Amino acid sequence: MKFVAIVQARINSIRLPGKVMKLIDGVPIIEILLRRLNRSKLIDQIILATSTERKNELLVNKVQQLGFAFSQGSEFDVLDRYIKAANQYNADAIVRITGDCPLVDPTLVDECIRKFKEKKVDYLSNVVPPTFPDGLDIEVIKYSALKKAAKEATKISHREHVTLYIKESDIFSKYNYLNDEDLSALRWTIDEPEDFDVISNVFKNFKPNIHFSWKEVFELYNNQPHLFDANSQAQRNQGREIKSGQKLWKRAKKAIPGGNMLLSKRPEMFLPNQWPTYFSKSKGCKVWDLDDNEYIDMSLMGIGTNILGYGNPEVDEAVKETVQSGNMSTLNCPEEVYLAEKLIDLHKWSDMVRFARSGGEANAIAIRIARAASGKDNVAICGYHGWHDWYLAANIKSKDGLDEHLLSGLETNGVPKSLEGTVFPFRYNDYEELEKIVDVHDIGVIKMEVIRNKGPEDNFLEKVRELSSKKGIVLIFDECTSGFRESFGGIHKNFNIEPDIAMFGKALGNGYGVTAIVGRKEVMEAAQNSFMSSTFWTERIGPAAAIKTLEIMEDIKSWEQISETGKYIKEEWQKLFSKYNLDINISGILALPSFTFQNKSHQAYKTFITQEMLKKNFIAATSIYVCINHTKELIDNYISELEPLLKVIEECENGKDINDLLDGPISHDGFARLN
To answer: Tell me, what CATH number does 393's domain have?
Structure first.
């Protein structure tokens, strides 16, 4: 039987990039590992298994210089990489060693191989459960078993962690080699910078000898424990135990300020340290994470961008055809004209349209146009309207100006202080407050969401429209969220109130970037008296997606479907909350239902729901952007899984501590803590 040691390594590790080529006393870690492993008496051949990525050429060249063989395969399908290497070098059994374990002991390797032969098993390891220090991990696998695993394993995690499928399956014979003493809490591997410090300390102590045994290292630990302090708090096998999404999020926060581009998608907003964070694919109302776990999205649905569900085949096909024809050109795309005409037809009061690719851009454009049309700088706002300077100016004087408009405690660093006194928030349904602002501050623009958490009262919208007309104020309805959810077009159509400008985004392109600013000619033409221009406002994919999205919406009357579904969700929530005597406020338009616990434990309860629903493969918290793929059957399943959690919350209301039920920190409330 030919025993081939396959050392798994690549340059682009997630937590400590380039770690296998980091130097200890001038020698790369991979060289130290291979030279130590080469002292095994029972290994017939040692090879490096790395990926075909060009960045690994340095690693391959080094290994070749040392006289060792190599094999290259998939970057992320490591199981396939192992199979390729085993085939290439005719292995009957594989000794799996990872490149981040330079303290691997050849004597211990031989002990494992001897035990593998003795037990005649498919798989032997010293890590299930672990009793040796982390970093002495050894696995011996019969080639036929690994081949079977490679054929049957489909999960991303099974492909990434070579032997995980074998460990979890009952069809393989297995044996675990135990140490006399449980030393599994000791960490002698290299995943983090702190690990490298510890391993460096070890080799410096034994310098120039690199062929010391693991038992000598343990003796060093007992005699000089301070050499091992740097990583003493690290978790064993955190590279495997931590989900791929969390690993990548940790990496992202080092490379991207804040970790990502959208505050609403930060894992701290959902389930800190536990959230899947990233998706590999999506379809309908399902998403798959990087470990190929499947979830039902009963939450934000792409932050409200997918009324027709993820990956709608007709919309996607329209986009594919656009890509094949060419997305960009020196000439203009005709689709923007077709889309403009369609939106004008849907809103008979309007005459002209401008396009952008995000809601924040649309808000900024609308404000620029409205200010130009009115000839006045000051703006009264109600609701959330993006991230630009003009909006954040409401918080220059005090941090709480926008607290009732979705965001609280937002800093205004970087916003010119000269903008102070240009933006004045008012509360929804508080007409007297708005009237006072208009009277005092010479307002030129009123910008508001048509509906916030509840609808208008006491003819509020009619009064706002009348006031705007009387004072020569440009009235803007921000429908980036509400548009196309309870009407085919703006929700303002349901109230028979006509603004001067309306903005649409999110659902307009069913996941593709496109937003629209629709308005009256006398207002919109002011755009020509200012400067608003951007290269990627002219790309073709967004308008093409929007045209097809509108066509499908109109055909299936999607707004009716999602409103009916949202109404059903609200009714079922109310039944549950009443059953368990919970003080809950249910709000939002029909197609965007949400609920809030009316007590100080709201955020903890929300975290608990998110945590437990995730375990049931639901992405869910306290609000839902409804899509057409949210069927009654699916809703009923969601409700049945939610009910026992509400029973637990009832118990917490009667004395049980909710904090004892949380597996990690409470989710963040608002965005201020993430800045």
So the answer is: 3.40.640.10
